[in-house]
Amino acid sequence: MKKKLLSLILIAISFSATAQSYIGYTHDNYAGVQSVLFNPASIADSRFKTDVNLFSISGSVGNDLYGVNIFDTYKKGYDFDSQSKITPKSANNGIANFDIMGPSFMFNIAPKHTIALFTRARSVTNLRNINGSLVDQVKDGLDKASDFNFNAGNPNGASNTWAEVGLSYATVLYQKDQHFLKGGLTAKYLQGGVNGYVKGKDVSVVYNENTVNPEQGTLVSNGQITVGTSQDFEAKEDYDFDPKSMGFGFDFGLVYEWRPDYDQYDLSKAKSADNNFRDLNKYKLRFGLSVTDIGSINYKNSREDVYNVNGTITQEMINDAGNFYDFLNEHYTKIASIKGTKTNLPTALHADVDWNMYKKFYLNLNGDINMVSANKINGYGIADRITLTPRYESRWFSFYVPITYMEYSGMQVGSGLRAGAFFIGSGSILTNLASKDSKAADFYLGMKIPVYEKKFKDTDGDGIIDKEDACRKVAGPVENNGCPWPDTDKDGVFDKDDACPDVAGPAENKGCPWKDSDGDTLLDNVDACPTIAGPIENKGCPWPDTDGDGVLDKDDACPTIAGPAENKGCPILDADKDGVPDNIDECPLIAGPAENKGCPKVTKATLEKLKVEAKSIFFVTGKATLSDAKKGVTSGRLDAIKEILKNYPNAKFAINGHTDNVGNPKANQKLSEARAKVVMDALIAKGVNPDNLTSQGFGATKPVASNKTAAGRAENRRTEIVYLGNL
């Protein structure tokens, strides 16, 4: 022990630990009274009617200096200093926590109000800014060290042990549609136990080895050290409990829940059997925020001494030291001493988000932020932390795997479970099993008596709990004490509401069968005209005839204008006003006499005009090609012919071609046929209906003048348009 005394003076303690409790468990909806320790609002609208904690304990150790195989440390002969992996830095840090929860209770005193009463014993230790290189150098004592020169800086260590009695109150602050907000407050009476702290200021050490006599090696130190304890242990080494060392603290928190299916949990619609849905999870997302451990303990008998540690010591001086205070007083100068100390609690900010992924599967993200300064004398707090925890959660069983990044000790993976009245877990157990360089270890376990909120039994599902149901196995209304109303005719209408209790009938007719008043085979309930017979296709109503023309509207193409049935009830029109109705008028847009079926007659004057126009159609000599030289004249004649022919849409005309007798008769015949067809095609191209035209060639067989003279032959070379009659 004596060889470690110098290290204690210069750097306090080289081992540090992580300080959170119940990692993975406290955010379970069935954590009960334990959840109030981290957010007092969490117990409002709880799954518990009552939760009684019999006993639970949580502890954790870890550090950023020593890495070990946790399970090797239990082996006989294990040497922590030589067999661990040391990672020294100029400022190694850490904290430690042990938390024992005694008999504690949680009660739902009303649908929106919950209280909790808990007892708790706690111990938290912080060690910060420790020079790990110096620790490594002197871990075996100065007599085993070689020359070194270190700036130890401002090491700071504090430890406090105390007891708490807390009273928590949580309530629903706001509830509207999908938004649900809870708030909670905890007031705590604090009873101080043991408090101690060491704080260095600008400490540096230089060691000069004596190879002849290692115990005479010298260590020169400079700086200032403050040492404080909850009582004067120099005057009396035995611990004396001081009931006057007490204080007060409080926690507060808020929880918001997003409940997108809020309408399923509407209390105004809840039945007795629903028990206000208190046994169900109602949120999709939950957000929590809290601040804990605001307060302090006043140690009235505490002692704080400040030493100037400028001086030189040897290993022999350490070996001869009787106790810690003797060593300080013999070798260093005390420059200040005071009585009474107020010790603040490890104030921290906590936040969490809980996502109900699917049914009983959740994913929780939570974290802690220390709010105590690392340089505060007698200041201790928690480690900054963030944890992602997937979990399966049900009323009697939960299983979770927390994955944590912890300040100082890094990543760690744990596991835990809750089974009815028992829970156990660790935030680092899986890491400890797998790693040979673990810097953290923690555990927790507990026993409780959970009394869950539950649905009352309703065997027949009629909303009336069995203890109030006169017919527990058959559903019935509350007005009939849970028994069904009788239905004599089995028509689904209870006798109390049935106008025809002995004859089956639909509910909409008060339990009576429908009639067919007009005898059209449609019952009155589906008959749009129940007192007038009509076809089924018209919902039992007669078809109307709006224009009174004897054609029913359903068949009348003109239901508001009278017309004969043969024209689908529409009047027959005479568009060209020629006295021939359009339905028999072959030329409905051109006036004509009835004897010609409403089409105009082809007159001699018309035929004479066609003859004149046709004479002006010229061809290239000896060819069936319209003459280019007289193209304008020919085109004009064709247009004129077209305009004449369109006035006779039902007339048939022939285009006849003729030649003189000069040349071969067969060639003349073919030429006349070709020229007649050319004229016909030209007229069709200009818009004349092909059905109204034919073409024919006669060669030189039908002369109109003598072929002996040039004038006669010119007259015989002609094109004629002949009326053949109607189509």
From TrEMBL:
SUPFAM superfamilies membership: OmpA-like, TSP type-3 repeat
Electron transport recorded as keyword: no
Annotated OmpA-like domain residues: 606-727
Compartment(s) where it occurs, according to its Swiss-Prot or TrEMBL record: Cell outer membrane
Chief location bin: membrane
Pfam families referenced in this protein's UniProt entry, alphabetically: DUF5723 (PF18990), OmpA (PF00691), TSP_3 (PF02412)
Signal peptide stretch: 1-19
Key words of the record: Cell outer membrane, Membrane, Signal
Protein name: DUF5723 family protein
TM ranges: none
